[in-house]
Design brief:
Layout: H1 3-28, H2 38-48, H3 50-62, H4 66-86, H5 91-113, H6 115-118
Length: 122
């Protein structure tokens, strides 16, 4: 494996996970259209940002344990599918959220499987 491909395999899932967290932040912006007061808007914003905090926490765990991140992101994707199917939402809705979670989880799994080569035999 070349140095470039090692760095790409190491940084791509981390960058995509961060980008996914930023993507989820977009969905929290709808609280500003509610016309609530400052404190109620702050509480609603915090509640809408809980999934972002969960994804960022999982990303923080990934720097030490890639396999944990792969497992948690897969579980999060399955939970998202289950929640959306129980609400009878169309498949496009859950594919937009759960699909990237599965792709990022697969990249973290590949990162973990190649950890010896990526980390120089550690």
């Amino acid at each position: 494996m070349t140095e470039v491909s090692k760095k790409l395999l190491y940084w791509t899932p981390r960058g995509l996970c961060l980008a996914f967290a930023l993507f989820l932040c977009v969905f929290a912006a709808d609280v500003f259209a509610e016309g609530l007061g400052f404190w109620r808007t702050s509480l609603a914003l915090f509640m809408h940002l809980i999934p972002v905090f969960v994804v960022l926490l999982i990303l923080a765990l990934a720097w030490r344990w890639e396999w944990v991140c792969a497992l948690l992101l897969t579980m999060l994707g399955c939970l998202q599918i289950w929640l959306m199917l129980s609400r009878h939402m169309p498949w496009q809705s859950w594919a937009i959220i759960a699909g990237p979670l599965f792709v990022i989880a697969a990249l973290f799994l590949a990162n973990w499987l190649e950890r010896k080569e990526l980390h120089g035999g550690r």
